[in-house]
Write a structure and sequence with these properties.
Layout (H helix, E strand, L loop, with lengths): L10 E7 L18 E5 L6 H26 L2 E2 L1 E2 L2 E2 L3 E4 L2 E4 L2 E5 L2 E5 L2 E4 L5 E6 L5 E4 L2 H5 L2 E8 L4 E6 L6 H9 L15 E3 L9 E3 L1 H45 L15 H8 L22 E4 L2 E4 L5 H4 L2 E3 L2 E5 L3 E5 L10 E3 L15 E2 L2 E2 L8 E9 L4 E5 L6 E8 L5 E8 L5 E6 L4 E3 L7 E6 L6 E9 L1
Parallel strand pairs: 15-16, 19-22
Antiparallel strand pairs: 1-2, 3-8, 4-5, 6-7, 7-10, 8-9, 11-12, 11-13, 13-14, 17-18, 20-21, 23-24, 25-32, 26-31, 27-28, 27-32, 28-29, 30-31
Helix pairs in contact: 4-5
């Protein structure tokens, strides 16, 4: 239950200042304001009262989301007469427009986007409980969020699609709201309450009108005006104190001292000023030299009292892999890269292009800077990989020479083991071939050529993680 807090202003009696033992008026140690006896004590601001406000705000948000969930469920909202999140498919890609979706009572603003579709599969597009557009083959999973679109595909495009969006209108929500029975309000129950103009009543089941509030306001206006006058005088004294602090701060900094400002309001406390005085050192920077070219951009420092901004480029921030200016090699010893002038934080790299540093250029059994060689001396050799070959699709492979042995293998869709096939040329010049694990991957080129063509031979299964090797 929400406990209403009645807030009161603090009203000082300006004719009754609070004096210390010497007869001098006391001041607030935190604000510096003069202290008076109180006509009325103000309501204190505490974490408990502020947290009560936050709890009420949180409860209101929870109620709104619960009403959206109970009254509307999961749906796509209609904005200005247009229902968003309209989907369409082209080839094996589905796109959707921007829109607003309610999932489990929560409102999500969904941006326009697209995603690839799985070939030869029925799949649902939906907004999940995290507000992200996803796809699934399970209708139950899709209905747990906001169902948008159903599409069936073959190996290259869409066979059929259906718009699955639903929305709820304002009229439907109002009809549901009309059936809600609201009880009469009390101290323990929320509900309908009667209005009253009384300002001296004691009933606990009525609410004050604007007239009643104004009558009470008029009665307290004299006290409020007196408090405002006192506040104005206190504010003037507070302003004068702050002006004095600012002048002291300027003087300390002028003498090359530093003044902290912990709360960031531009007005230091007396303790911060006292600490700042201790930082003043005679000729603090007279013997120091600050070259801006040796200070990183974004930083600054003082040189004999003059503030200077850093000019050194931050190379690590510009590029994690910064290209070097020059590179050279001491044969059999080491590799040198000349970095550009600037700051490097020790976590980034300076690079130089070495396109020749590939396994095929390094003798087998030799490791050159982390690259293991595959070059067989006196024997031509080439190898490579192909990510995927779709069902009944072919892929040409340029070996760089006419091989005598050509081997290719890959992981077939739906199988744990790899299928492979090879073709080789016998000593008498006859080309022979064989296969292991079925004919899912097939060498189309039946005579040895520089460009060998392979094919995913099954009508329903693709082959992925393909590795080919050729020997001359």
């Amino acid at each position: 239950m929400y406990n209403k807090q009645v807030w009161k202003d603090e009203i000082p009696d300006l004719a009754r200042p609070i004096l210390d033992g010497s007869g001098k008026q006391k001041t607030d140690p935190q604000t510096g304001r003069p202290l008076f006896e109180l006509v009325q004590e103000g309501t204190r601001i505490t974490s408990t009262r502020l947290n009560t406000m936050e709890g009420g705000i949180e409860a209101a948000h929870t109620l709104v989301e619960q009403l959206a969930k109970e009254l509307g469920g999961n749906f796509v909202a209609v904005i200005n007469g247009v229902m968003g999140l309209q989907c369409s498919a082209q080839g094996l890609t589905v796109t959707w427009t921007a829109g607003v979706a309610y999932v489990g009572g929560r409102r999500f603003e969904v941006s326009a986007g697209n995603m690839p579709l799985n070939p030869t599969q029925g799949q649902y597009l939906y907004v999940d409980t995290d507000g992200i557009v996803k796809k699934t083959t399970s209708q139950a999973t899709a209905k747990a969020g906001v169902l948008l679109f159903y599409v069936a595909t073959d190996s290259s495009g869409v066979i059929s699609s259906t718009d699955q969006r639903v929305n709820i209108s304002l009229e439907e929500i109002l009809m549901k709201l009309e059936n809600i029975d609201v009880p009469e309000a009390s101290l323990t129950e929320k509900g309908i309450v009667q209005l009253s103009n009384a300002t001296n009543g004691t009933r606990e089941n009525v609410a004050a009108t604007e007239k009643a509030v104004k009558d009470a306001y008029d009665r307290g206006s004299a006290g409020i005006n007196a408090a405002a006058a006192a506040q104005a005088r206190a504010d003037a004294a507070f302003t004068q104190a702050n002006d004095g602090k600012g002048k002291v701060r300027t003087a300390i900094i002028g003498e090359k001292g530093t003044v902290e400002d912990a709360d960031g309001d531009g007005i230091p406390t007396f303790d911060e000023l006292a600490a700042g005085v201790k930082t003043i050192l005679p000729n603090a920077t007279a013997d120091a030299v600050l070259d801006p070219n040796m200070l990183v951009v974004g930083y600054s420092g003082y040189d004999d009292g003059v503030k200077k901004a850093g000019q050194m480029p931050n190379r690590s921030a510009e590029n994690h892999h910064m290209p070097g200016l020059e590179a050279t090699v001491w044969a059999g010893d080491r590799f040198f890269i000349k970095p550009p002038r600037g700051f490097f934080d020790g976590e980034s790299w300076v690079t130089a292009p070495v396109p020749w540093l590939v396994p095929n250029n390094i003798r087998a059994g030799v490791n050159a800077s982390g690259v293991d060689g595959t070059l067989q001396e006196g024997v031509k050799y080439a190898t490579g990989t192909i990510g995927i070959i779709y069902a009944q699709n072919s892929q040409p492979i340029d070996c760089g020479f006419v091989p005598k042995v050509f081997v290719v293998s890959g992981l077939v869709q739906g199988f744990d083991s790899r299928a492979s096939t090879y073709i080789y040329q016998t000593a008498d010049g006859i080309d022979r071939t064989d296969a292991y694990g079925g004919t899912y991957i097939y060498i189309v080129t039946r005579t040895m050529q520089q460009v060998m063509t392979v094919r995913a031979n099954n009508a329903d299964r693709y082959v992925q993680n393909v590795i080919w090797q050729a020997w001359g």
